[in-house]
Write a structure and sequence with these properties.
binds zinc ion; globular; mainly beta; 1 helix; five-stranded mixed β-barrel; DUF35 domain-containing protein; about 140 residues; three-stranded antiparallel beta sheet; ChsH2_C; 8 strands; OB fold (Dihydrolipoamide Acetyltransferase, E2P); ChsH2_Znr
Length: about 140
């Protein structure tokens, strides 16, 4: 018996992010008033409190700032993928994002260049980050 993975939680605010992911596009909210990029999705800019936010396609590029190697998961469906890397990527546009990294634990290093990739698991397109330029199929 296979165990289903937990699905991303969509709210009215985060729905555009997931709709774009489903189409293979990585997007961020940008503030119309101060121009800064925002992640996670919000109703108001955390810098100037404007509610004029616009979804725009983003580079999907960034640098790895910190990480953990996961040996035991909080969900049984991920256990067969252990050990794997979860970390914080500082996106080129500025915000930080906690994400699952498709990088061998022995090859991960501080400030490594990473880029987003999209993988369909159980009919759900999910964003992961890989070492920039890595074409290894992971799943
Ligand atoms: Zn702002």
């Amino acid at each position: 018996m296979s165990i289903s993975l937990p699905k991303p939680l969509r709210t009215s605010i985060s729905k555009p992010f997931w709709d774009n992911i489903a189409e293979g596009r990585f997007s961020l909210q940008f503030c119309d008033d101060c121009s800064r990029a925002i992640f996670y999705p919000r109703a108001h800019c955390p810098f100037c409190f404007s509610n004029q936010l616009t979804w725009k396609e983003a580079s999907g590029q960034g640098k790895l700032q910190t990480w953990s190697i996961i040996y035991r998961t909080d969900h049984p469906a991920w256990q067969e993928k252990t050990p794997y890397v979860v970390g914080v990527v500082e996106l080129t546009e500025g915000p930080s994002m906690l994400t699952h990294l498709l990088i061998e634990p022995s090859e991960v290093f501080y400030q490594m260049d990473v880029s987003v990739c999209f993988i369909t698991i159980e009919d759900e397109v999910l964003p992961f980050f890989k070492a920039k330029g890595d074409d290894t199929p992971w799943f």
